[in-house]
């Protein structure tokens, strides 16, 4: 081990005997009492020295025997100490790609704050590289989501959409203006390749399947970002059937009528699905199914979608963050919930979505705390 203070956490003396690591309450840690000599010794924890050399340095500074081990243990338990050589074979392979690591260094710093154990950041970033995500929709929201995921180190980002890109699809961080007139999904895939910090593990094959084509890795996550925000606000249960049957986690997001939404993230069999959502709405509003059928029928097809660029960019960023949290092994706040915000106030608020007893997805019958598994990461969820 070559102990290193995590560079992402700023260090300051709160008083003469107390050191604070980190600024924000979410991740700040206090350590004390710390005398002046020990405080000077902290400067040596920069990842260039192993424990034997650190012991020699400590003795030269007049520090007592055993202090190095005690200090390293306390700092490790507090989550403020890292090891630049830890993380396993995947992390070692990542470190060998120097240019890619330089692009992802801020992401590594963020992961080191979120996951306290030494080597956790490169290990999780290496795991992102093996993930395969499918983004369904390449409008203002979907194209930006795909680009952010690729730029964040996700190894495989497949994009599905139809038609040709229009001037209204162009957005900073999304489709560029020279893509107007090109096949929309092709333009989005080119955007993904340009955004990625390195070459993907291998070229995408058949992105259209909810499962995996022969030789293809299974989908870790499907993100549904339709250009028509109605399909995210009121998702079609039929479209989701292949994901439910294959246990593929999927996340809905979009913008409709100047309202942005992120979620729900559906863990098949564990959290509410599109079918649950449809039944819940029909229970509360008997007229909803009739209106929804009219909206889906294509009436008013010439209407211009109210998809404010700033709101679409915000939704895309939040969606990508929730997706990355899930891929990194956490359950984001969109799990079984939808977050909404409408212009102009942009007051984000959650709506919890409970599984419906009559939905065949089976989520309502899962016992509280029972484990959920799918083709992506394994998670524990509290259903019901």
Describe the structure.
By secondary structure, the chain is α+β, with helices and mostly antiparallel strands. It folds into 3 domains: 4-82, Outer Surface Protein A, domain 3 (Alpha-Beta Complex), CATH 3.90.930; 89-125, no CATH class; 130-380, Rossmann fold (3-Layer(aba) Sandwich), CATH 3.40.50.720. It contains 13 helices and 14 strands. The chain has helices at 36-42, 51-60, 67-78, 89-95, 98-114, 120-129, 142-151, 184-195, 230-233, 237-246, 274-284, 288-296, 309-327, and strands at residues 4-5, 11-15, 18-21, 29-31, 81-82, 132-136, 156-160, 221-224, 250-256, 259-266, 337-342, 349-352, 371-372, 379-380. The strands form 4 sheets. It has a 7-stranded mixed β-sheet with strand order 7-6-8-9-10-11-12. It is elongated and about 80 Å long. Mean pLDDT is 89; it is low at 203-212 and 367-384.
